[in-house]
Amino acid sequence: MLHLTSRFVFCALLASVYASCPPRCECSEAAQTVKCVSKDLRSIPTGIPGYTRNLFITGNQISRIGPESFRGLDNVTNLSLSNNRISEMEFHTFSGLLRLRSLDLSNNQLTIIHPEAFSNISQSLRELNLSRALYNYSSVMDLAASLQRISMANLQVLDLSDNSLIYLPSHTFSRMYSLRRLQLSNNSLVAIRSLALSGLESLEELDLTLNALKTFTDEGLQELDSLPRASLLLGKNPFTCTCGIEPFAQWLNRSQDRVRDAEGLLCAFPPSMRNTSILTVGMLTLECQQRDVGADLALQTSYVFLGIVLGFIGLIFLLVLYLNRKGIKKRVYDMRDACREVWEGYHYRFEIDSDPRLSQVSTSADA
Predict the structure, then answer these.
(1) From the CB of residue 263, how many other CB atoms can be counted at a distance below 10 Å?
(2) Lowest-confidence range among 7-11, 118-122, 268-272?
(3) In terms of Cα–Cα distance, which of 29, 47, 51 is closest to 99?
């Protein structure tokens, strides 16, 4: 009887420990889910059950996360930490989440990202959401350094939208060999630089809508062409339809099967071209070339005319000097003689002032 009682107590204690739930959180063993939503938490709560596969800690006041935050949570596959005001991710922050497949860090204020923050989950992770999560330029560079340092060979979805990105550092995605979807919408990208999209041969979708792209340079078009399998979204950018837009317009006409919103791409500037389809701008190529040739010819003509005028003025000046050579020579001699007299007088006076005896003689003579 005593043996049965002890076994019962042990099982009860074990069950209570296994089914424990952190304060201010909701736990469901059946769904293997724990939710700590908008509970004003200041740190990741302890005592999260080991059965947890889906962990939602959102809408709190957590400023930093580190390697101690997720210890003992080997079964977690989906982790949402959105809208927590997280500003710092430390070394090996997710080291205890060896099975993590989806990580949502959106709507935070990341300013410090350790280069090794994602290292322990780099092989298991499939989706990473950093939308509206990067607070400043230093966090962008920290993230780029982290992504360049570790190999996220199995990552398939990366969301970097709404981060005010101005440009993409080279080789940022070069170690994401399996990435299929890259979200860069609603940033401030002004250009796509060389090697900014290197390593994304498996990419199937690239979203560049709602940025500050006025056109695409040759290197930007080459970067887009380096993504042979990707469908592209380029809408709602302030395209400037001046003569520099023709290479992009020609490329767009050739790549309509890849650009899903090609027919909706419109000129924003100048006002005379506003709402004109960029697909039709290619017809301006000949006019721009003619205008450029005419401008170059006019500029060359003006330079030649200016050279002739300056040469003529120089000849006149030399002729005037030649005709007045005797007068000029006399003036030069007169100036030389005048300077010599002044110098001799100054030299004589200096000798008198420097010799006390001569000074006395000169004084007596004056008396």
Answers:
(1) 13
(2) 7-11
(3) 51
By the 8 A CB rule, do 175 and 153 touch?
yes
Angle among Cα 190, 88, 104 to the nearest 5 degrees reads: 70
Amino acid at 308: I
Report the pLDDT averaged over residues 78-106: 96
How many CA atoms does the CB half-sphere of 46 hold within 13 Å? 2
Classified as helix, coil or strand, 160 is coil
Of the candidates 62, 113, 99, the residue with the CA atom closest to the CA atom of residue 84:
62
Would the pLDDT of 2 be above 50?
no
Tell me which residue of 84, 85, 76 sits closest to 103, measured CA to CA.
76
Mean pLDDT value across residues 318-341: 75
Give residue 100's pLDDT: 96
Query: Can you list the alpha helix ranges (DSSP code H) found in the chain?
Result: 2-18, 137-149, 218-225, 246-254, 285-323, 325-354, 356-366
Instruction: Decide yes or no: CATH 3.80.10.10 for domain 18-290.
Output: yes
List the domain boundaries for the chain. Answer: 18-290, 305-366
Tell whether the model's pLDDT for residue 284 goes beyond 90: no
CA-wise closest residue to 160 among 119, 207, 118: 207
**What tokens appear for 211 in the block?**
């940025």
> d(Cα 129, Cα 122) in Å, to the nearest integer?
14
CA terminus-to-terminus distance, the chain:
149
